[in-house]
Amino acid sequence: xxxxxxxxxxxxxxxxxxxxxxxxxxxxxxxxxxxxxxxxxxxxxxxxxxxxxxxxxxxxxxxxxxxxxxxxxxxxxxxxxxxxxxxxxxxxxxxxxxxxxxxxxxxxxxxxxxxxxxxxxxxxxxxxxxxxxxxxxxxxxxxxxxxxxxxxxxxxxxxxxxxxxxxxxxxxxxxxxxxxxxxxxxxxxxxxxxxxxxxxxxxxxxxxxxxxxxxxxxxxxxxxxxxxxxxxxxxxxxxxxxxxxxxxxxxxxxxxxxxxxxxxxxxxxxxxxxxxxxxxxxxx
Length: 284
Known about the structure:
Layout: E1 4-7, H1 22-33, E2 37-41, H2 46-56, E3 60-63, E4 68-71, E5 76-80, H3 85-97, E6 101-105, E7 109-112, H4 118-125, E8 135-138, H5 142-149, E9 155-160, H6 165-174, E10 177-184, E11 197-204, H7 209-220, E12 227-231, H8 237-242, E13 245-248, H9 254-259, E14 262-263, H10 272-280
């Protein structure tokens, strides 16, 4: 019996049109009526999707790919894990050496030298489906800002129009961090900013959606068999593989489909999320 459904946002319940289908909304509403906890599980920071979570009346939220967990019914923070100042400075230096774009997320800010890739995407989304109070700060000297302000950094993103595999290997050799390398190209092209690129999503060691979902499940005294996870992107692989029922929507990366219990026939734009919910949950 499924008692918790954890879902990614972009590409899973929200499609390219930046809207949620009526079928997906109905599935979320039916879960709430049946006392099944709906959990947002996203790489986005809490500040960016707080209003969105409230609109959907989500019970819990896993943010920053797992570095923060919040009980959205009470506002209680269940878990947080942040990057050290040394780790942030080391990543900035490595990116600067290769002349790569880097930005990072604090609790309520996006710090960037220039809006270009994922930070530009999130800036555009700020005034669309994700209205929020996230403050976008353009800072010319990132190292100086870190040294003077000493911000609490949840996540770093390094982006480029070329491959970042060598940089990923270099960071792995120097530090124990969690890194997801994602390609936004071909069918996965970023339609919001109309650009193809690659990025490294960098969070503290052993931080991912799967680990966070285990922490949340333990907090709620649930077994993995009572959890369904739904996603489309590479950072969803571990939680889909480790959940009782792991679902990949039809538009998901092939690597996600390979580990899923079930791949929907419908894409996100055709309510693949709702298809999965109604396939595995019987509502009275």
